[in-house]
Design a protein that fits this description.
The complex is a heterodimer. By secondary structure, chain A is α/β, with parallel strands linked by helices. Chain A is built from 14 helices and eleven strands. The longest helix of chain A has 17 residues. Chain B has 25 helices and 20 strands. The longest helix of chain B is centred in the N-terminal third of the chain and has 22 residues. Chain B is elongated, with a radius of gyration of 33 Å. The chains are: A alpha/beta, B alpha+beta.
Amino acid sequence: MSYRPAIQSIITAIETVIVGKEDVIAKSLTALLAGGHVLLEDVPGVGKTMLVRAFSRAIDLNFKRVQFTPDMLPSDLTGISMYNQKTKEFEYRPGPLMGNIVLADEINRTSPKTQSALLEAMAERSVTVDGEVKILPSPFFVMATQNPIEHEGTYPLPEAQLDRFLLKIEMGYPSFNEEIALLTRFEKAEPLEALQSVISKEEVEQMQREVRDVHVSSAVKQYIVRLIHETRNDPFTYLGGSPRATLALMKTAQAWAYIHNRDFVLPDDVKALAGSVLGHRVLLTAEARYKGKTSEQLVKGWLDTLPVPMDREVKEV
Amino acid sequence: MTEWVKRIVYTALAAYLLSFWVEPIVGSTTFDVNWPFLFLLLVPMFASLLPWYGFIAVVVLNFFTVLYIYHGSLLDWFGLWLDDLTGVLSGALPEEAIFFSAMALIGVLFAILVGRTYPSYGFVLGMIVSTLGLMAYFDTWTLYDGESNILFAILASLFLLFVTDVAKRPSKSFVRYVSIGLLAAVVIVLGSVSPTIEGDWSDRVTTSFQNALNEGGSGSGRVGYGVNDEQLGGPFEQDDGIVFIARGVPARYWRIEAKEIYTGKGWVEAPVLDSDYNRGQLVDDEVDTTPEQALLRFDRRQSFVPYGGEYPQAAETESGTEFLVGDIDESFPNETIHIRPSGKIVFDNDGQVTPETIQLRYGVPAFTEQQLELNEPVTTLTDEEQRAYLQLPDTLPDRVRDLAVEIMADSENPYDQAQAIQAFFRSGEFQYDTEDVATPEGETDYVDQFLFDTLVGYCDNFSTSAAVLLRANGVPTRWVKGFTMGDTRGVIRGEEEYTVRNRHAHSWVEYFVEGAGWVPLEATISFSDANLLQVETESDIRADDPVANDPQANQNDQQTNRPQEDLALDDVATGETAVESWNIPVWAWVLIVFAVALLVWNRKSLERLIMVLWWTRRPLNEPRLVAMHRYLVKRLRGAGFKVEGRTPSELAAEVDAYYESDEMTRLTRLFEQSLYADQTPNSKYKEYWKIMIRRIMS
């Protein structure tokens, strides 16, 4: 809990670059502290890349960027071993995954083969090059972006792989006033250049450890499980949340509570993150899609009706 | 600031509503003025806006100021109060002083409630219902006329409900709109679908006078004084509606008029009869009469004047015989009234109605045994009159005449014959009943049916039969209508008062004794003629009418002889009639319904009290904390907040925003720390909980 001022300063620092996106920043930070990865989904130009770059600067992390293209190979990510004619040995040239914060831009533009290499690296936190396992640096935090508008020439991520992203965050457009503020801020200066790191890599690792100590009471656990059960039992869902989703919900809730200076999780934390955690993990039936429903709407509906447990006693619904 | 304005408006409206209590209460008591009550009820209410010491000071000062102005002296009044208290403790009805204090206490009580429960929805509803109920009750059963006020009371009630924040509900809740819509829909649907029923808003006190005893034949009539007696018989219902209140008299039967012609089915008036006995006196000049005065207060103006003895004092004037009825009501300054041959007093105005208050002067005859036992041929009545008073229909079965001869075989004079008939009815064969009473159909004679067939009936059966039997034996009779003495109200300001109600309507017989005049006879079993006929024996001639002058004796008489209610005393009374006397009167039902409604409306405060007492007195542990919080959330749901799917802190934010408070958030923090952070419950939770419960359930 000692890092609360640090968290506030991260958010403040990033906000000098990203206008009015406190929620997005907090969620991204949540994913980082929970040891997961983020899928940013939105139209181009809303500041996805800017957010990631601000993140890496504020936290003094090693930033790597990959622009995904259809002709990209897995080795373009993991790095390759090249023959060094001087030493007459194969030498490992690290790919862009060897960074702390990796911006995987337009992840759906590359072939499934490359995508799965990335997702495997995200899950395993290591890559295998020429039979040799290379451990990725820690912390390892992927922020992938995806454009929901263009479909031509894209390879939509399979559901199983979406599940590997802890959170899917939508940026959204800034409000009128925020956009004015944005213009003013960028009128004469380049805030990103002026952004100083406010926290070290070691401090982030310390925070990640502390997040695991955030208490989750049995009432909150019940709430999480009940919510996941809702996703599985709703007639509009083709595929509900997996146990991995259950875990993700709890871990992000812990980090969210930590960011909000609490050492215990409230149902409010679960509610705040449910949309981002479950939105990309729930598959809708054809009927639901035909009726124009979105998974976000369904999550909102579950949250609106599911009673919040006020009891320690575990009761199966 | 706005809170203060609201508070004052609320108090003013509550006070205005309460002020409607004063008129009916004052009207039904012996108080002449209502301003003391207005002050006693209303000043404390406004004083409730002050701090408690100011409240007490104003209330005490107000009480003694009102007393001083009303009574002139505080010391005297204290003596009165002590007397009254002693009286009440020994069983007497409370008089002025006690009543006065009681009203003052009610005023204080209401002021405290108003101060305490603002802006309680339940309390306001209770006050509205009790005020409207009180007005309705007094309007129906007493002389008070609430029709002109009820509209204002209802308007004030609506305003009061409005300022009581009924409209203020959680803004995000759509429950209010749904319920408004539902209500409107139900009203519209029911209003258009349900069959239309003619509303009966007429006052019980007056209508029953039009539906008299004689509504037999077509179902059940209602007891009361009627005009048309052509068709007697049939059952009737009891009616407690007040007709008039008599002051200053001992228990007396109230005579209104007599009828002469028996038709075989009922009674009609004879063509004009004219003699001294029909022009101003009932009894012979030889009979002693005791002067008596009665003050009658009517509910509505009536078409008759009841009197307790002889005809009211008459004076010969150029325009004929006039009766002085006093100058109580200025709108009837010594109004001329006429007396009809039947003894009915009629006002010489178009509507033939009485003033609302009448002061009557008349003599109460006291016959001596010698006068009654005279057996001389009737000479005082004209031949025409004698024919009328001895008339019997041709259709009268002979067995009635035979029975008359049989009953009175051993009786020498009219008085003895009358006594013989009275004894005949009381021999045990006959039964008093108001419900299982037949109406003669077709050729059946009313008297014949009763005497030989049914043997069950009420006053009309007994009196008509007695009159017919006496006539059959050659005694001139007439059938008399009026009221029995009524219910005693006790001695008020030194004078006895009686409340005469519809159910006291009665009929009896007058027979003529030469040298005595018209002598009344109570023929109906279970009724006593102690309040109708005074006979002085040798021993009490000097005692000067002991019955009339001894209120205590009268009270006893009146209690033991109260007609129709004490049937169980009568040896012929059956189990059925005894059960009837257990019937709960309508107004008691109304009261019970109101009480239940009040309880239901105030159940929240009761529940709140119980819950607060229950939970806050016990040490807090987690299960209790959870239970308390569940209860709180349940109450919040009841108050219109959306609870489902809300986390405790979301709910707290909304609740605090609504109540402009922060207790719910504080409470929720403590709840969260206990349930979600697994810490020991903090006992401060109970304090916040108590505050919130009071706030939600007030």
